[in-house]
Amino acid sequence: MEMLMFDINRNINIPIYQQLYENIKQNIINDVMRHDEKLPSKRQLSHYLSVSQTTIEHAYQLLCDEGYIYSKNRSGFYINDIVNLPVTYKTKVPAQTNQDEISYKYSFKLGAIDKEHFPSDLFRKYAKEAFDEQQVHLLDSGHKQGDLNLRKEIGHYVFHSRGVNCSPQQIIVGSSTEQLLSIITDMISDSKYMIEDPLYKQVRNLLKRKHVPFEFIPVTQNGIDIEQIKKTDYDVVYITPSHQFPTGVIMDLKRRTQLIKWASEKSNRFIIEDDYDSEFRYGGRPIPALQSLDNSDSVIYVSTFSKSISPSLRVAYAVLPKNLITLYQKKTNIEGGTVPRHTQYMLSRFMNEGHFERHLNRMRKIYRTKRDHILKQLRKYPETFAISGELTGMHFILTVTNGLTIEDCISRIKEADIDIKPLSHYRFKKTDNKPHFVLGFGGINTEDTEDHINALISCLTKRKKTSSL
User: Using an 8 Å Cβ cutoff, are 111 and 311 in contact?
Assistant: First the structure.
């Protein structure tokens, strides 16, 4: 058997042999160590635990005396069949449950994509190419900013789709938005940050983990509150202007211009623009990326392929202003090259052959169809539901207006086995107790859309049961 990590505490008064005896005994009782399984030899275990062989011998002898283990001549010690012991109290080990792994009957989960229409055949083809002998160079360490071919494709794409002006030399490729933000905070190391409220929790968590000072700025109906920004002495603002997460608010052009003007007033001010799902816009005239309006090298543009292709692809990218990319290249202690080169190859081929654009066009229609059907059903109940933030992206805000409290709604949703997060889950400084929910529709199979939305409507519109006298 492999060595087990026994819990030995040398700072208590219980002898080590007795602690070892109790550890092995409990592992046997709880089926971690099973009938006829061989124990490590006294020599092996003493070396592994840095204790004497005499200590191991005492523990093994106690276990033998009580029938938990038995010895074979010239072979070692083995676990006994404890079912035959006269008294054995088995303690059930509680199951470790990850909240994210809980399965729901109906799920409006954020961050999920439509898996039915993932281009598996193409990625299978590109994977085969990537591991061909002709691509053996992909086994070497790549450029810390990402492979040049991929950076060229990203630069071409963001220019034509979002108006972002950059060269491949300004682009860095990372495994996630959080990793890119970590790199950015390493470069702008002495700055204080302003972040939106409500917000994607991982951004707040990263800043806290890295001990970066930050302040929450509330989001209004037109985007982040510019007047509040002007009142602070902070230097960097992190925003999601094209589809604010999670409210869905779109920052208007006037406010974008005001924000860029604020940033241009000092050389150490920066705007981090997270354009995480701008590909999916369903109505109205597209508003260009903030970066495309910037003439002062103040905007750091960040986006990801998590929504447009798949979250498991683990590819995000940032466009750094020229002064920051120079700083990035000079720093030797900044993490880079975190995306496997084979993945980069597959993605660059997917983009170069025009399949990425075709995939986006196809998925835009699919997500629009899902969204339209859900909205059509919800709008049949104007006295119960209000909707906002639905013009772009793969989620919107659903507000329950029929008098139910947030506690009532959550109780009913739980009873109906529905996975949907309240907006309050993403709020930090500004809080309210209104029944707002963030409804994600990207991961629902097309044929399941009807059942999902009917279940949600049913649980939030049905009358409370009243007891009869």
Answer: yes
Beta carbons within 10 angstroms of residue 218's beta carbon: 13
Cβ atoms < 10 Å from Cβ of 399? 14
pLDDT given for residue 73 in this prediction = 84
Inside any domain, residue 293: yes
Residues 239 and 158 in one domain: yes
Amino acid of residue 16: I
The whole-angstrom separation of Cα 61 and Cα 58 is 5
Same-domain status, 79 and 155: no
Kindly report the CATH number assigned to the domain that includes residue 371. 3.90.1150.10
418: domain range?
A: 106-113+358-461
What is the value of pTM for the model shown? 0.77
Q: Are strands 418-419 and 421-422 parallel, antiparallel or unpaired?
A: unpaired
Closest CA relative to residue 200, chosen from 248, 251, 246, 249: 246
The CATH number assigned to the domain holding 335 equals 3.40.640.10
Say which residues have a Cβ less than 8 Å from residue 438's Cβ, sequence separation at least 6.
110, 246, 395, 396, 397, 398, 420, 421, 422, 423, 425, 426
Return the CATH number at 75: 1.10.10.10
pLDDT at residue 48, as a whole number? 81
pLDDT digits (tens, 9 = 90+) for 140-173: 989 999 999 999 999 999 999 999 999 999 999 9
Domain assignment present for residue 466? The answer is no
Encoded tokens for 8: 């030995």
Of 314, 335, 357, the last residue of a domain is: 357
Structurally, the chain folds into a number of domains equal to 3
**Those residues with Cβ within 8 angstroms of residue 278's Cβ, 6 or more apart along the chain or in another chain:** 161, 162, 242, 243, 289, 303, 392
C-alpha span between 440 and 108 (Å, rounded): 5
pLDDT digits (tens, 9 = 90+) for 358-391: 999 999 999 999 999 999 999 999 999 999 999 8
Residue 440's H or E segment, with its range, is strand 436-440
Q: How far is the C-alpha of 185 from the C-alpha of 244, rounded, in Å?
A: 21
User: Which residue type is seen at 255?
Assistant: R
| C-alpha to C-alpha distance for 218 and 195, rounded to whole angstroms | 9
The rounded distance, in Å, linking the Cα atoms of 152 and 168 is 5
